[in-house]
Prior knowledge:
Chain A is an all-alpha fold and 352 residues long. Chain A is built from 16 helices and two strands.
Amino acid sequence: xxxxxxxxxxxxxxxxxxxxxxxxxxxxFDIAAPRRVFPALIVLFGVLFAxxxxxxxxxxxxxxxxxxxxxxxxxxNLNVMIGYAGYINFGNIVFFGxxxxxxxxxxxxxxxxxxAAGPMAGVAVSLLALVFGSGILRLRGAxxxxxxxxxxxxxxxxxxxxxxxxxxxxxxLSFDAYEPLGGPMAALWxxxxxxxxxxxxxxxxxxxIKTSKFGLGLLAIGQNEDAAGVLGVRTPRHKALAYSASxxxxxxxxxxxxxxxxxxxxxxxxxxxxxxxxxxxxMLGGYGTVTGPLLGAFLYEELRGYLLxxxxxxxxxxxxxxxxxxxMVLFAPGGLVGFIHQRWPRSRIILQ
Amino acid sequence: MIGVLxxxxxxxxxxxxxxxxxxxxxxxxxxxRVINLTxxxxxxxxxxxxxxxxxxxGLSPYEGIPIVVVVAFAAGVGIYWxxxxxxxxxxxxxxxxxxxxxxxxxxxxGTALWTTSPYNIPVSLPGISWQGYTxxxxxxxxxAFAGLIAGLLYLFLNHARYGKAIRAVASNxxxxxxxxxxxxxxxxxxxxxGVALACAAGALIxxxxxxxxxxxxxxxxxxxxxxxxxxxxxxxxALLGGIALGLVEGLATPFMxxxxxxxxxxxxxxxxxxxxxxxxxxxSRG
Lengths: 352, 286
């Protein structure tokens, strides 16, 4: 485990693997222990995350946590591409928006129950991602990053002109849509619990990928794609699968989120800013780790909430987020988790 | 038929200005392998400098261009030393994020200063009427300026001593350093030049269309499309790519609603990127 963590971090740090590992003592601990403990910790975290607002019956806290759950889902899945495979995807939000559209369409037009429409949206968008991915994943580095922006903008413009999905005005949900979940008030809680579930599953998926052979292949691609190919990693298949897998939960989360909002329109659904904010969260927490995006997204959401409500700096929210990102990139590219790992190597048992 | 021709000519004129903007992007990429994501913010900066020059000093945007270029060059060199210098040679993610962070900061400041309401620079130039179609003077003037600046850049890169140094750094930085070229300074100057091109293009675009603080992202995307058409890192290709994009826009306008044009552009963008990553006019490897 420790070795693969190093691969992920060193690659994007630009430092060679060997030089870093020679000087650093790998702490001795039971390799198998984190495999048992870590997933349990994630589930425990999810349960607490779901129950804290519910016990307090605190609607404001629920809204804040709901947004945090969406952010954590987006950042965690994006990290599979950015942190593991080293492919910068600026247009990850296209999955979120398309998932939202598919789910809302299924619920309003075909009267599917939400619990079926959400996963269906995930499956549909994952398949679409497989198609997109097989095309644009032939590109590398900056070219791939540019293409992902192109895909997002093309899809946004297409949906804005696509009349069955309401064109530029989007789709509104009527109150009837919430009846099967026991009315709008109860539906909000249900959606919240479902979103927390999606968040927990995302984190578990991220951990499962990282500890699997598949994940090792991705980390190798991130390190040196040609070398990985020579060593037997089937790079096109690995990349396409990772791209597709990183589409599933964002799509489901998009479905739930826009169902809860009651409206979906192209500019809100395919908001490139949110896509980039997810990258800020990953950088803040530490890319290539499981807990990094989680911490980063949670911190970013809390910070954003504070900045938006504080009257003096609300206008400068973008400036502060940008300055934060710049500082992280220039001075702490490993993020929070990277910093902690460097300081206290044993922390890797808990902070995967 | 003449209507289509008129629309195509108009598209090509505007396309030349897009090409000028894209030259800034592609120059920076070619020399230091950095995609400048502040590009859109810089185009907007050019627009607002031209706006204040015309409003406060009474200069027409064409007279103001030298001032725009000088201010933009200084801004570009500043951004280079603050954000880009430390990420040169590091993985591409870092330079993308560093320039994007600058973009966020600049857009945030711009929004606080100017809100997001639309501005425009009133310019009146006599147009040319032909067969009942009028070619607007501003479009022809903007294209002429774009051509002029592109020509100056060509002369500078190919004949001036410093221009040759820039090309040397682009082709091999270590060898350039060994030959006594101060490569860091060259990189900073190149970044300044790229930003100056973006700002000059912004000032010209401001004479054609109304603009807001947020217009930059739209023109930045157009610049990406153009650079990809022309081949990343190839300034001459960028100008051709801009004209090609203008041609596509001009051809599409008479036949379909305007809102469909971006779909064609982005579809073209992704297809060309996947099929011809070196650009459709690939003269040399980028």
